[in-house]
């Protein structure tokens, strides 16, 4: 039974405050969870409550959310069996009482929801992935390493937000991690040799001032080859365009030019022909549904089209996308929706509808590794947690190493199978 719930304000990887929650059970178990925070957030995400008091952290303090945990959310679940996750999440949602979790804050609610799950797992003496996923949780996800950062995550001129290395040809997660790290270091050397800066963006990738987005893909291909791998079969490429960020009044502004959605779609078709790209996220803006449909018709059989700002891990927005035939993959961010149960509902709906899922960190992260366990729990097959460098990114990858070791012979690395259906 839940005996007490505590919360505090801690710092995230960008040096901004965020919420950490601790749950104490009557058997003595204590577990904590920390909440991440985005920069290129979708308009339809659950509400992140910040104090707005300019005298602390430039208004970004989270003491109101911390108080909401201590004064309201915690007391509302005291005495409840910690393994009753759905009931607890229901209570949290009802205690908040708003549609988008804006009163107590989705950051407060998520912290409690995840800390409860971790405490229940600990109390049952199970690893989190096993507790949430049951006996069939065994698939290690392909890591999508964001090695070039642009958009809102870096102060360079690159419009696209994330350039991924996807080591689909590795035979284990540990091998995929090694391939990614080796290629990351080669990429640094290549950028340096070409006279570009090798400072890092928010997700640990390099943030060079490249003249075009295609140049980013060229550098990835070069680095993969120079590291001794084959682009495509060993290590494939991916993009998170985060197109909402450069969409205004019906116009996309990319590479210093104005594009219609149709022109941008043709551009993506050309990229997929020219590069071994297996996944493109948020290729178009979050409310450009008709253009998304046309893009899916043009490219959906060949490549994974991921909805992030488009779906915001929200079962209702995902259901609309499924009905319309928009995108074919769901990006899963626990803080976009705010409870574990709703996150699992979104994943279930995606998988039942033939959509793939990719678990995701946020650009503002902490040392919390919950998403690594969740990705294995649901056999997602894909996770993005930034570059294979910087501790808040690597913490998730390191946790996946531990899970792979713990699963032993039962572990299966998703590899190419994670993307196979798009190769028709
Ligand atoms: P964010 O970016 O965490 O800044 O929203 C991540 C993403 O767009 O996938
Ligand atoms: Zn995204």
Automatic annotation (TrEMBL):
GO MF term set: phosphopyruvate hydratase activity
Pathway of action: Carbohydrate degradation; glycolysis; pyruvate from D-glyceraldehyde 3-phosphate: step 4/5
Active site: 203, 333
Domain of life of the organism encoding this protein: Bacteria
Binding positions ((2R)-2-phosphoglycerate): 161, 333, 362-363, 384
Chief location: cytoplasm
Domain Enolase N-terminal: 2-132
EC code(s) of this entry: 4.2.1.11
Pfam families assigned to the protein according to its UniProt record, in alphabetical order: Enolase_C, Enolase_N
Cofactor, how bound (note): Binds a second Mg(2+) ion via substrate during catalysis.
Residue numbers binding Mg(2+): 240, 281, 308
Domain Enolase C-terminal TIM barrel, chain residue ranges per copy: 137-421
Keywords: Cytoplasm, Glycolysis, Lyase, Magnesium, Metal-binding, Secreted
Cofactor: Mg(2+)
Subcellular location(s) of the protein: Cytoplasm; Secreted; Cell surface
PROSITE patterns: ENOLASE (PS00164)
Stated family: Belongs to the enolase family.
Role according to the record: Catalyzes the reversible conversion of 2-phosphoglycerate (2-PG) into phosphoenolpyruvate (PEP). It is essential for the degradation of carbohydrates via glycolysis.
HAMAP family listed in its UniProt record: Enolase
Protein name as it appears in the record: Enolase
Organism: Microbacterium rhizosphaerae
Gene name linked to the record: eno
């Amino acid at each position: 039974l839940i005996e007490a719930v505590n919360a505090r304000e801690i710092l995230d990887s960008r040096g901004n405050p965020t919420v950490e929650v601790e749950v104490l059970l009557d058997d003595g178990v204590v577990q904590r969870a920390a909440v991440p925070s985005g920069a290129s957030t979708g308009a339809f995400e659950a509400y992140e409550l910040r104090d707005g008091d300019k005298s602390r952290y430039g208004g970004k303090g989270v003491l109101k959310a911390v108080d909401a945990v201590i004064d309201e959310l915690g007391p509302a679940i005291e005495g409840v069996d910690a393994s009753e996750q759905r009931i607890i999440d229901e209570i949290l949602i009802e205690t908040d009482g708003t549609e988008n979790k804006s009163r107590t804050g989705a950051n407060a609610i998520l912290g409690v929801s995840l800390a409860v799950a971790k405490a229940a797992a600990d109390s049952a003496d199970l690893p989190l992935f096993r507790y949430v996923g049951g006996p069939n949780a065994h698939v290690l996800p392909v890591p999508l390493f964001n090695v070039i950062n642009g958009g809102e995550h870096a102060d360079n001129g690159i419009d696209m937000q994330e350039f991924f290395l996807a080591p689909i040809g590795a035979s284990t997660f540990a091998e995929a991690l090694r391939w990614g790290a080796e290629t990351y270091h080669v990429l640094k050397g290549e950028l340096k040799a070409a006279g570009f800066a090798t400072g890092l963006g928010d997700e640990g990738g390099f943030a060079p001032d490249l003249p075009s987005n295609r140049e980013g893909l060229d550098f990835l291909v070069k680095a993969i080859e120079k590291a001794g791998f084959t682009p495509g079969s060993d290590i494939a490429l991916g993009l998170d365009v985060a197109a909402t960020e450069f969409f205004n009044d019906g116009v996309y502004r990319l590479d210093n030019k104005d594009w219609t959605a149709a022109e941008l779609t043709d551009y993506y078709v050309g990229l997929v022909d020219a590069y071994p790209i297996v996944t493109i996220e948020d290729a178009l803006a979050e409310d450009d549904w008709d253009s998304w449909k046309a893009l899916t018709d043009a490219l959906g059989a060949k490549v994974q089209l991921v909805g992030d700002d488009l779906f915001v891990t929200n079962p209702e927005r995902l259901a609309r996308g499924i009905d319309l035939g928009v995108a074919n993959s769901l990006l899963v961010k626990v803080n976009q929706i705010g409870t574990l149960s709703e996150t699992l509902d979104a994943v279930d709906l995606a998988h039942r509808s033939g959509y793939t899922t990719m678990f995701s960190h946020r650009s503002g992260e902490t040392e919390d590794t919950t998403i690594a366990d969740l990705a294995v729990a649901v056999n997602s097959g894909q996770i993005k947690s930034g570059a294979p460098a910087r501790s808040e990114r690597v913490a998730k990858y390191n946790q996946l190493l531990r899970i792979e070791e713990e699963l032993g012979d039962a572990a299966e690395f998703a590899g190419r199978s994670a993307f196979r259906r798009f190769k028709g």
